[in-house]
Write a structure and sequence with these properties.
Layout (H helix, E strand, L loop, with lengths): L2 E6 L2 E6 L6 H17 L4 H35 L15
Antiparallel strand pairs: 1-2
Helix pairs in contact: 1-2
Length: 93
């Protein structure tokens, strides 16, 4: 989170700037985007705009997941040198 300080004569106040939505908010909005696109009620232009938003949200979500994965790897390696292995989708481990 970025904090901006505003100085006034005899007064200091901190104003929090808006931050990126969290992963849960991104996922919830992506579900709404899918519902809107599947409804068939949007015009072509509206569909393209909503699709574009969905692509941007998916990228942000992927970036957040990648960052979380790196944090977990750092925590695991720092807590005793446990070996990390990639997730194997075929057997769920």
């Amino acid at each position: 989170m970025t904090v901006t300080f505003q100085f006034f004569v005899g007064k200091v106040s901190a104003v929090a700037e808006p931050q990126d939505p969290g992963f849960d908010a991104i996922l919830a909005r992506l579900r709404q985007v899918v519902q809107q696109l599947e409804s068939g009620e949007l015009s072509l232009e509206q569909s393209l705009a909503v699709y574009e938003e969905g692509v941007q949200l998916a990228r942000k979500g992927q970036q957040q997941l990648a960052a979380a994965e790196k944090r977990v790897e750092i925590l695991v390696s720092a807590s005793g040198g446990i070996e990390t292995v990639p997730f194997d989708e075929s057997n769920g481990t």
